Amino acid sequence: MATSHISTAEELSSAPKPAPTYTENANPSLTEKGALSNDILSSSPEHLEHVHRRLLLKTDLAIMPLTALLYWLASLDRGNLGNARLQGLPADILGGDPKGNLFALCSSLFYISYILCQVPANLVVKRFDPAVVIGLSVVLWGVASASQAGARNFGGELVCRLFIGVFEAGFGPAIPLYYSYFYTRAEHGKRTALFIGSAAFAGAFGGLIAYGVQNLPSPPISHWRILFLIEGLPTILIGLLTIWALPNRPADSRLYTEEERAVVLQRLGRESKVESDKTVRWKQVRGALGDWRVWVMGMIYQSLNLALGSISSFLPTIINTLTPSPARAQLLTVPPYAAAFATMLVCAFISDHFAVRGPVVVVLLLVSGFGFMMLLIDHTHFSVRYGGTFLACMGTYTGVPLMMSWCAANYGSETKRAVALALMIGFGQCFSVVASFIWPTTDSPFYRKGFILCMTWSFFGAALALLLSIHFRMTNLARDRREGRPEKDVSPQTETLADKAPGFRYMW
């Protein structure tokens, strides 16, 4: 198992006093401020454990509810097009769209702009205050989302979807990077799962909202226009709150006392160097672009996103083949999303506890693949096919946060981590664009092409995840033989060497 460098209170207190190697290497400017005071770090194990628990609770309360709420809103704004499809949007502004091609274009354009803007957006988050960048992104995508209610034709809807993708690019890939500023690698997985889990919850809640809107008696405007307004306008207000309420980096945030800041920076410094500036190191940008493992992670993420893009936009349509009532189809989307949320939390805790990612991702992709295999059965078998939607949702949604955490754990420096995350997510989400075109209306009610592609790619992604996990494990063993076991009180010099730094170990 990879060395995770998780810092406990006992380890902190048992480190040499003073610890010149760490404090000189970790961050001189922070040391001058007293953030890594030896007096604080030489406290009793009991006291440090109390500080550790207090700062984690404080960090979680300041960050997790707000970021989960933001992703919940993003998922509503991203996925409500699928609900609007059943509420008359194609008939009103797409000329009926008998083949589903115009709807597929509207759905895919979001992903195209989202993919293209991710790397520059993550570098902006690295360079400037993350709370401001993330908050502004939320406000602007909320404006674009609510504007869909005013679309009068195909072109208007396309423009709205384009700008939702542009501005969400400054949020979605940024949050796993942002979490890495506050949490160790063994704390990252469950937090990312809670964050992404709000998407599964949004899918369930979105179905309930759409069901309620669908049953409004004689509304003044179309049901789908009301849906866009209800799910878009609150995003703008929450985005403004984010700019003020979301903490910046631990060293700059007023969230912590000096004692808490010393402990959190000491814990983070055991895994990689805590960077004192916001400089973008272009050599590491090139290093991420040329790292084959980033692209393999992107291919694994592709397999998840082919399924994720299919589920988020077409699950109501798929379930509608099992029941003649569109309103009942909206309601039946709720249980699979709820099951996905529960599975996500359980698997994330298991993954963090054992400090592994790859083997868990392998199992989840296999579950997703078998789910789509069940959906290939004749559409008259309601129980089997509906059960397949559960497995597809559980495997797909749970694999996404673990892939984000796996990528965030393995590239050392902030710059390479920022680019690697954006590349993996962007490259992977190319298949979300593909997902928009594999469910044409002409394939109803069997949708064999969509189910076969999702199943095949899930199994392919599982094979890649297994091979990459083995590679990281073997690399760690080779470094142990060459360097010896990493010293727990020495910070790897990842600021300049990224994941190549002596003492750095990969999470496999």
UniProtKB/TrEMBL annotation:
UniProt cross-references to Pfam families, sorted A to Z: MFS_1 (PF07690)
InterPro entries: MFS, MFS_dom, MFS_trans_sf
Compartment(s) where it occurs, according to its Swiss-Prot or TrEMBL record: Membrane
Sequence ranges assigned to domain Major facilitator superfamily (MFS) profile in this UniProt record: 63-473
Gene Ontology annotations for the cellular component aspect, listed alphabetically: membrane
Region (Disordered): 1-29
Domain of life: Eukaryota
Matching SUPFAM superfamilies: MFS general substrate transporter
GO MF annotation terms: transmembrane transporter activity
Keywords tagged on the record: Membrane, Transmembrane, Transmembrane helix, Transport
Membrane topology listed for this record: Multi-pass membrane protein
Biased composition regions of type Polar residues, renumbered to the chain: 1-11
TM helices/strands, residue ranges: 55-74, 102-124, 131-150, 162-181, 193-214, 226-246, 294-319, 331-351, 358-377, 389-411, 418-438, 450-472
Matches recorded under PANTHER family: PERMEASE-RELATED, TRANSPORTER, PUTATIVE (AFU_ORTHOLOGUE AFUA_6G08340)-RELATED
Protein name: MFS general substrate transporter
Organism: Calocera cornea HHB12733
Phylogenetic lineage: Eukaryota, Fungi, Dikarya, Basidiomycota, Agaricomycotina
